[in-house]
Amino acid sequence: MVSQPRSLGREASDTMPLARFAPVLLRVGAFVLRYSLVLFLLLFGALKWTPKEAHDIEAWVIHSPFISWVHTLFGTQGGSEFIGGIELTIAALIATRRWWPAVSAAGSMGAALMFLTTLSFLFTTPDVGDEAGFLMKDLTLFGAALWTAGDALAALTARDEDQR
C-alpha cells in the first residue's frame, strides 16, 4: 500500500498546484521501485550462470565471512549459480505483491539481507579498490528492498482489516 498524502486544504492546493499529482507520483514511483528491483535481481541473477560473472564475484565470495561456505561447497561456477538461483527466487517472490503480499514481503526481506551481505564486501575484500563504487549501489537497493517489504506488509495488513 502506498502512503497517501494528507489533505492539503484549499490554501495549500492554491500555493502548491503540483501537489495534486502526489498520489499519481506515489503510485508510479512505487511500481517503478518494486519492478526495477525485480528486474535488477533477474538480470544479475541470470548473469551468475556466465563464467565471467562467476570469476568476477569469486574474490568477494571467498573473503566473505558470511558466504565463503558457498565457494567451499560448490566451487567458483557452482557457487555463482547457487547465488544466481537465490537472486532469481527473491525476484520472483517480490513480484508477487499484488496476489501474495506476505510472500512478497519475505522476498523483500531476503533481498535486504542479500544487499547487506554484498555491502559487507566493502570491508571484507582486501584491496576492493575500483569495485567499491559498483558495490555502493547496493545501499540504494537495500533501501528499496526495505521499502518494498514495508509496502507489502502494509498491503497485507490492509487486506486483513478489509476482511474483518
Task: Walk me through this protein's architecture.
The chain has 164 residues and is mainly α. The protein has one domain (36-162). The protein is built from six helices and no strands.
The biggest beta sheet is recorded as: none
Overall mean pLDDT stands at 90
Q: How many beta strands in the DSSP annotation?
A: 0
Give the overall shape: elongated
Structural class: mainly alpha
Question: DSSP helix count?
Answer: 6
- State the helicity in percent bands: over 70%
Cα gyration radius (Å):
19 Å
Number of domains: 1
**Unreliable spans:** none
Strand content: under 5%
How far is the first residue's CA from the last residue's CA? 18 Å
Elements, N to C (H/E): HHHHHH
Summary tags:
single chain; 164 residues; mainly alpha; 6 helices; 79% helix
In a few lines, what is going on in this structure?
This protein is mostly helical and 164 residues long. The chain has one domain.
